[in-house]
Amino acid sequence: MMVADGWRELKAALSSVIPAERLIDDPLRTLAYGTDASFYRLIPQLVVRPENEAELQHTLAECRERELPVTFRAAGTSLSGQAVTDSVLIQFGRGWRDHAILDEGRAIRLQPGVIGARANQLLAPYGRKIGPDPASIASCMVGGIAANNASGMCCGTAQNSYRTVRDIRVILADGSLLDTADAASVAAFRASHGELLAGLERLSRETQGNAVLAEKIRHKYRLKNTTGYALNSLVDFSDGIEILKHLMIGSEGTLGFISTITYDTVVDEPLKAAALAFFPDMGTTCRATIALKQAPVSAVELMDRAALRSVQDQPGMPAVLKTLPEGAAALLVDVRGNDEAELEARMQAVQATLEGIQTLEPVTFTRDADTYALYWKIRKGLFPAVGAVRETGTTVIIEDVAFPIERLDEGVLALTDIFHRHGYRDAILFGHALEGNLHFVFPQGFEKPGEVERYQALMDEVAQLVGVEYGGSLKAEHGTGRNMAPYVELEWGPEAYALMWEIKALFDPGNLLNPEVILSRNSRLHLENLKPLPAADAIVDKCIECGFCEAVCPSTDLTLTPRQRIVIRRELARLEALENQASDADRTRMTQLEQAYVYQGIDTCAATGLCATQCPVGIDTGEMVRQLRRDQSLDKAALARRIGRHFSGAMRVARGGLTAAGAARAVLGVNLMDRLSTGARRLSGDRLPQWSPALPRSAPIRVLDHASSGDASRDKVVYLPSCATRIFGADHDDEAEARSVMEITLALLDKAGFEVILPEMIGHLCCGMAFKSKGQYEEANHKARELNRELLVASQNGRYPVLCDTSPCTLQMREHLDERLELLEPVTFAHDHLLPRLTVTPLDERVAVHVTCSSTRMGLADKFVVLARACAREVVVPAEVTCCGFAGDKGFTTPELNASALEGLAEQVKACSAGYSNSRTCEIGLSQHGKIPYRSILSLLDRASGTP
Length: 948
Known about the structure:
Blueprint: H1 3-14, E1 23-24, H2 27-33, E2 46-48, H3 53-66, E3 70-73, E4 88-91, E5 99-102, E6 107-110, H4 116-123, E7 128-129, H5 142-147, H6 161-164, E8 165-171, E9 177-179, H7 183-192, H8 194-209, H9 211-220, H10 232-236, H11 240-248, E10 257-264, E11 266-267, E12 271-279, H12 282-292, E13 299-304, H13 305-311, E14 329-337, H14 340-354, H15 369-380, H16 382-389, E15 395-402, H17 408-421, E16 428-432, E17 437-444, H18 451-469, H19 488-492, H20 494-507, H21 562-578, H22 584-603, H23 611-614, H24 621-632, H25 637-645, H26 647-668, H27 670-683, E18 715-720, H28 723-727, H29 741-751, E19 754-757, H30 769-772, H31 777-794, E20 802-804, H32 807-816, E21 823-824, H33 826-834, E22 843-849, H34 853-857, H35 861-871, E23 872-876, H36 890-893, H37 895-901, H38 905-909, E24 914-917, H39 920-930, E25 934-936, H40 937-944
Parallel strand pairs: 2-4, 3-4, 18-19, 18-20, 20-21, 22-23, 22-24, 24-25
Antiparallel strand pairs: 1-2, 5-6, 6-10, 7-11, 8-9, 8-10, 12-14, 13-14, 13-16, 15-17, 16-17
Helix pairs in contact: 1-3, 2-21, 8-11, 8-20, 12-17, 17-18, 21-22, 25-31, 26-27, 29-40, 33-35, 35-40
């Protein structure tokens, strides 16, 4: 069978069970979805997105029949190349996010699509958490955490997945399913797969009987170690089921697929303190680390002088970082406790441990939340600091080794010497010192002559030093992947290596599960299929493709994520740079990518900038998209100018349209209106906006004919109703709140004793965001200048605060208007200025809160919840609902983005009386998809504060 025929036949066979939209083989999405956080590039022939175990089993059967390899992918944040393939990529999305709390939080059952931080959020009410705590926990998924045996800063070797797994549900290469928590499933598996279990038990007996090999395995797993398979399962257990269960941990999808894992959870001690201790040299630092191994600490993070230098100039960093001598190093010591006495005792124990060890400054612990967060910001900012300053076109490589802690000091010095001898003088060192686990981070390009050879020479020498001379781990926590597969035998020796191949043959005799990962006969595998990172756009060129942005992106489950948008832009830049050297295939591919990118990359981007809050190097992919929209819409600049110069008229037209839509709704009814709108949109080729049942009434603009109270004793505030609140009034179906946002705001300000000042030309004013989001920067800047002038006049050059009733507009103004203006959105103004003036009685209601993207970017999430809790008995913040995807008008023009972003919202808020936010357009989409009315947070405060 021809290979191409094999892919076509596979897709046809799978389409009988899996819908076509979840069988992806177009050039754009195979490239985008096939990219992970490693520095390797393989493009899958087919991406399959099964939604349940039956679909996955069917996929495996069809691939097995055609001998087509498969690779499993969760979040794609792995660094070692274990989640890329040029065959079949199986991705796990919304259908794999189920969870269950067991034993009052002492255990948790999770599917592989659950984000690690979400698991801890579920466990927080019980004072527990999962053991693994990788740095990527806010974006990586449980499937990858288990498959890589990822650890982190606090979990060490005692709380990783291998040590805390209680049960697994696993699907093997032959499609069989084993649930170790189900006695019937175990009994059936013993009957059907007795040969496999017997083989594992035989290997266990042979290994335990080989004293030298058994001791070597025990030694290796005293350290953090994810190189190769979990051979410790052969010495820790003798029963085949237990061996299989633990072999699956860290197997990187090469032995089977973990469809569910049950973790024994660990205590999450609530009280925390940290000290940043500085030492004169690395030797002293390592000796302090060894001493702290026996102390009651939660984490000890080591940072060398180069690492500290990489962040010392960032805002908010302690001044002492700039004064440290060359050769100095630091330890971040974290101590936690269940109560005050325990925490104090542990801090004193650490102080006693460090007595007699020279430090550059006295070691003092802080319990101040801001300082504690600053210390961890230093540590967590090291990797992105290198990424942010690297030369465009280079990648960032993070090596992940572990030394026996008793030899940590000499190992560090030897490793540093190797890096310097090979010309890697920009490398920084940091790591989880208690485990001897060190990360060397350095920029690396592969395009220039000799760079691949230089990297190879470095890796050869590092592998010999760490794996052989020091008996350490070449991959302590990031997984073997493709990156370290050629060195597994060097680290483990031929006997243990042969044992690993036997394990692979028992589970996957056809070598169809993630071949070339962990085990490979190709000694140059780590040097092949290196990812190109060409310059594409200065806005995004520093992207390291880590994928941290994806967890908060509203289009993640619809089209592309920020990382994937950047991947495609880079590929287009690479193809464009070929110029006359481009082949016909290259030109065809470029055309296909450009055409598909319009919808996949540009039209479905909310462009709210929320991705920048998660990006290690602060990239706002939305800004890149807005620039692309500008390039697309140059011919619309004149129209934008006309609208901007006649803005009050445009607002009147918009309100008139709402009035007409409301009248049609009253005559035709909601269902017929919806069908007619959907049909008209379809006939127009999606050019017409989609009518929404949540489309509100027209706003009563005459409420702004506001008369001054004439009370000179009142404090003054400038009130700027946004364009959205000047257009959109109250919901048609909201019986409990019939007022517009403007009416609510004016009533609340009066109740709190404020004299309201309205800017002149208020109907003509706009912050410019409506134009900027469409790429119309010239008109956006013009409107911002107009608004700036009027607000300065109204506020007497900043003498009075300015309240805007819409959060996104406030953020836009903060970024573009005069710094003299004190610009406040509803949450901040209500929390800081209204609550102290009002008598608030919490309503006996359960309410939902939606923290908008702009509120998140302004750091208002906690204040938002505090305000809501002051006004209602119970507050629900729906999990994993970040950006709503409405994005000004996307809810009308690209309604599928709003629907995808808010899938599952209704289930989470169904017991709430109403929802509250601080953006009127967001509230339209939230009302539609949440199936409860969403209102301004000011409405909640007004209701809770009663009549004056």
